[in-house]
């Protein structure tokens, strides 16, 4: 049997025949022997316990990828050296085999702990083959996936129909996917807020060096606020997943109650200082749209944001969200990524994105602090600076230029808080879309 890779498997899941199963078994044994002979160390064999004739589909690919990552990370944590590995994928299932420099008994204990880590681990089958070619026994018997009784009894008597077992299996995988997606999105949202406040120097805004035009907050206020908002972002993503069947207006109204509670939590964390009210709205809708759209490519994701917030017409950054965050897509992201391609530091990538946003966005915070005329002049000056940098007429480094802007903004009591929220949104979109594309490439 040829070593079928994941990419060459049929797009539509196919049932494995007896011949497929026997060929896969032969391939596995041959691979085990090859690894044992080459490295003379124990070999771990990882596959999934999947009932029924369909062994490989989108859900099981996900579970296999998570299990393989857990195993390799577990080996690193234990200080065990991975000497060589092979991944075998066919319609009969997915298998990962690795020769490991470690005592076989210690390796088996690690494998058992991974199988018992959570419900997803219940689907893992991690065998350890000693240098003598014999499989180490697990010890305690595993329980039945469906009823929790001793598994061998249920399996030998075929107590549970295949369809029932598969339904439980699919439910376990879906539940894990939901937890991981909400965790990943919420973590990225908090990280984006922390990154935004740490970018230095920013004109009129709190950063690592000073408080800009603000007297009631500093970087620690922002860090406390961002950390407190993690459960809110997680709840928004979960609500987006849960409310997919609802129309966008109804789903948005449900988000509003989450936002009200998030503002209370923010003020409790900051002793009543308003650090992230705008970001609660902007990033909350982004997190909900990430769950609702099921697609975190830039265009469909931001289109879903617009659908959710369409009933909430407003000016400033909130109006941006209702329009699908055009400044993020057409301004913040291109500037951030262009600076990255030039080899700029992450801090300077963010400064480039912020400068582009200041030049492009009619920031209501700027208008309220300095008036329409001053706000328009600030936008024009930011654009002139971008043009000068692009033409080569301005050769000073961007941080030096932004520091000069900060002095001017502080003197005028200006603060582009809306642009800061859009910078955080830009960082969130960039972080999630990049991680999504990397996962697809794997």
Topology:
Elements: H1 18-39, E1 43-48, H2 58-78, E2 81-90, E3 93-101, H3 104-115, E4 124-129, H4 151-157, H5 162-198, H6 219-228, H7 230-242, H8 248-270, H9 277-293, H10 298-309, H11 316-322, H12 326-341, H13 346-360, H14 364-370, H15 372-391, H16 398-412, H17 417-441
Helix pairs in contact: 2-3, 2-5, 5-6, 5-7, 5-9, 5-17, 6-8, 7-8, 7-9, 8-9, 9-10, 9-17, 12-13, 12-17, 13-15, 13-17, 14-15
Task: Jot down its keywords.
4-stranded antiparallel sheet; 7% strand; Alpha-Beta Plaits; 442 residues; 2 domains; alpha+beta; Triphosphoribosyl-dephospho-CoA protein; elongated; single chain
Largest sheet: 4 strands, antiparallel
Low-confidence stretches: 1-7
What would the principal axes of the Cα set say about the shape? Answer: elongated
Give the strand line-up of the largest sheet. Answer: 2-3-1-4
* Rg from Cα: 27 Å
- Tell me the fraction of residues in β-strands, as a range: 5-15%
Question: Which class of secondary structure composition applies to the elements?
Answer: alpha+beta
Number of strands: 4
Question: What level of helicity do the residues show?
Answer: 55-70%
Mean pLDDT: 92
Q: Which fold does the CATH topology of the largest domain refer to? A: Triphosphoribosyl-dephospho-CoA protein
The CATH class of the largest domain, by name, is: Mainly Alpha
What does this structure look like?
- This protein is α+β, with helices and mostly antiparallel strands and 442 residues long.
- It has 2 domains: 6-141, ACT domain (Alpha-Beta Plaits, 2-Layer Sandwich), CATH 3.30.70.260; 173-441, Triphosphoribosyl-dephospho-CoA protein, CATH 1.10.4200.
- It has 17 helices and 4 strands.
- The chain has helices at 18-39, 58-78, 104-115, 151-157, 162-198, 219-228, 230-242, 248-270, 277-293, 298-309, 316-322, 326-341, 346-360, 364-370, 372-391, 398-412, 417-441; strands spanning 43-48, 81-90, 93-101, 124-129.
- It has a 4-stranded antiparallel β-sheet with strand order 2-3-1-4, with helices on both faces.
- A hairpin with a 2-residue loop joins strand 2 (81-90) and strand 3 (93-101).
- Helix 5 packs across helix 17 (417-441).
């Amino acid at each position: 049997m040829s070593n079928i890779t994941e990419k060459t498997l049929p797009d539509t899941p196919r049932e494995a025949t007896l011949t497929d199963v026997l060929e896969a078994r032969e391939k596995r044994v041959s691979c085990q022997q090859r690894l044992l002979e080459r490295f003379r160390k124990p070999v771990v064999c990882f596959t999934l316990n999947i009932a029924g004739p369909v062994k490989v589909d989108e859900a099981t690919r996900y579970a296999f990828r998570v299990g393989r990552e857990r195993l390799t990370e577990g080996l690193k944590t234990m200080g065990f050296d991975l000497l060589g590995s092979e991944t075998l994928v066919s319609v009969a299932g997915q298998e990962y085999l690795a020769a490991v420099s470690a005592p076989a008994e210690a390796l088996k204990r690690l494998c058992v702990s991974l199988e018992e880590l959570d419900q997803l681990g219940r689907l893992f089958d991690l065998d350890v083959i000693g240098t003598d070619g014999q499989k180490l026994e697990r010890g305690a018997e595993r329980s039945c996936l469906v009823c929790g009784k001793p598994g061998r009894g249920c399996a030998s008597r075929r107590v549970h129909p295949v369809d029932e077992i598969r339904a439980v299996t699919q439910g376990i995988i879906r539940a894990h996917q939901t937890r991981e997606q909400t965790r990943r999105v919420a973590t990225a949202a908090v990280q984006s807020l922390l990154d935004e406040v740490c970018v230095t120097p920013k004109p009129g805004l709190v950063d690592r060096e000073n408080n800009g035009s603000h007297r009631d907050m500093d970087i620690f206020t922002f860090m406390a606020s961002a950390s407190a908002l993690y459960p809110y972002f997680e709840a928004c993503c979960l609500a987006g997943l849960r409310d997919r069947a609802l129309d966008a207006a109804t789903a948005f109204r449900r988000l509003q109650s989450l936002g009200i509670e998030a503002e209370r939590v923010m003020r409790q964390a900051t002793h009543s200082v308003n650090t992230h009210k705008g970001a609660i709205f902007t990033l909350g809708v982004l997190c909900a749209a990430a769950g609702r759209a099921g697609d975190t490519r830039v265009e469909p994701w931001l289109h879903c944001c617009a659908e959710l917030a369409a009933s909430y017409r407003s000016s400033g950054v909130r109006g941006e969200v209702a329009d699908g965050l055009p400044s993020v897509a057409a301004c913040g992201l291109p500037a951030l990524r262009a600076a990255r391609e030039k080899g700029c530091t992450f801090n300077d990538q963010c400064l480039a994105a912020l400068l582009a946003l200041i030049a492009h966005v009619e920031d209501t915070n700027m208008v309220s602090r300095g008036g329409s005329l001053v706000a328009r002049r600030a936008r024009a000056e930011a654009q002139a600076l971008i043009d000068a940098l692009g033409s080569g007429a301005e050769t000073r480094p961007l941080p030096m230029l932004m520091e000069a802007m900060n002095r001017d903004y502080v003197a005028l009591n200006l603060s582009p808080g809306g642009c800061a929220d859009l910078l955080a949104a830009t960082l969130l979109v960039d972080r999630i879309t990049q991680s999504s594309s990397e996962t697809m490439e794997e």
